[in-house]
Amino acid sequence: MKDVLDELAAARRTVGTATLPAGDAYTMELRRRYDAPVDEVWNAITDPERLGRWLKSVTGDLQLGGSFELDGGEHGEILRCEPPRLLRVSWLFGPDADEWPGTSEVEVRLSPGPAGDTELALVHAAAVGEPMFPTYGPGAGGVGWDLHLLTLARFLADGETLDHEEFQTSPTGREFVRRCAAAWGEAHLAAGGDPDHVAAAVQATTAFYAPEGNA
């Protein structure tokens, strides 16, 4: 368990605000370093075959101004692409998502480190009115991104991937989820979240990603 929880501690989590085309938004930001050069990390987040190894399989017109779709249903447009430093996409999910454009965006920024490593900053901005926040808070998307960035770390290190469903039902995975949800709760509190809402959101997020009875 120590190696996985070390990965948890490697990330810094921040909750903030932004403005999207649809209006005011909250942001979930994850920052962490990878022991790989910036070009290698860029390739892992943009090459369709490699992206499918740690995120999900992707199809579409994968160029600036084009559209993409993941096999989980997430889809959107490629809004900015500045190799090897910045990628921004709109991020929609659900059968009615296309009726509400401009409500969710994901931006990834890469910065080369002094030792040949790379700092990755992932910022997911979601409109304040989106339905998940009142129940789950920033952990709704934050824990999911934590799981994917854990998989990216393993993929960059040795080419291995992580079965999220299997991992989340293991004792180590359940502890990882519990601590992730708590860490997003701390970030939410630091951003001025109401303590009662934060506590309820952490509990709901933990139950969603690691429900009782699935151990």
TrEMBL record:
Domain Activator of Hsp90 ATPase homologue 1/2-like C-terminal: residue ranges: 35-153
Matching InterPro entries: ASHA1/2-like_C, START-like_dom_sf
CDD domains the UniProt entry points to: SRPBCC_CalC_Aha1-like_6 (cd08899)
Family: Belongs to the AHA1 family.
UniProt name for this protein: Activator of Hsp90 ATPase homologue 1/2-like C-terminal domain-containing protein
Organism of origin: Nonomuraea phyllanthi
